[in-house]
Amino acid sequence: MSLLSRTSRRTRIALASVAVGGITLTGLPAGPSFAATPPVPATSSVSVSVHAQAEPVTPSEVLRRAATWLTANNGSQVPYSQTSVWSDGYRQDCSGYVSMALGLWKPGPNTVELAGNRDLTTPVTLNDLQPGDLLIDAEGNSNTRHVAIFESWTDSSRTAYSAFEQRGGHGTDHRILTYGLGTGSEYKPYRAVNITDSEILDDPSRSRTLPAQR
């Protein structure tokens, strides 16, 4: 077989293979082409789970909301539950309670997300604690983690503070706490990002009269 014949035969085979792949000698598609699939219209949207951004709230509003659960249960505190939801749509555990006070989405992020999500909170120092700030222990499991809402220091020594919390075995409470003040404590201070200002509701040196810790 001559060189020309061999070349022609190889050329014919190559062209046939290309044609089977959907390409003609003109370089135009002979059939459907995935590359020619039109782009998704600009009006299309991808379904994703996004929580609504919390509305701005002042420290005084956080404390006012926190106080409502003290008497919301026909004059008594809202009972504690990690699975039940109160009539306002928030979970009846500590993180659900804090979410209610801050005006976050319902039924509320858990304690781990409150501490770790920088769209929700930012770390602060103990010396910088302001009314409406949070003391969060995000370690351990659902039975050991906890969060409380700071109200004010009990006196100038800053060895205790008044706070709101939703605690197991009791429900909503307003009492004197020392969470986070001891060396090596797992409780860390945070401030909600939707707090709009740092208004001081009480002088840090002013003593408050609260029920003894139970």
Description of the molecule:
This protein is of the alpha+beta class and about 210 residues long. The protein is built from four helices and six strands, in the order ααααββββββ. It has helices spanning about 5-20, 60-70, 95-100, 110-115, and strands at about 120-125, 135, 145-155, 160-165, 170-175, 190. It has a six-stranded antiparallel β-sheet with strand order 1-6-2-3-4-5. Strand 4 and strand 5 (about 170-175) form a beta hairpin. The longest helix is centred in the N-terminal third of the chain and has 18 residues, at about 5-20. It is globular. The N and C termini lie far apart (about 105 Å).
Strand and helix layout:
Layout: H1 3-20, H2 59-68, H3 94-102, H4 111-116, E1 121-123, E2 134-137, E3 146-153, E4 161-167, E5 171-177, E6 188-192
Antiparallel strand pairs: 1-6, 2-3, 2-6, 3-4, 4-5
Helix pairs in contact: 2-3
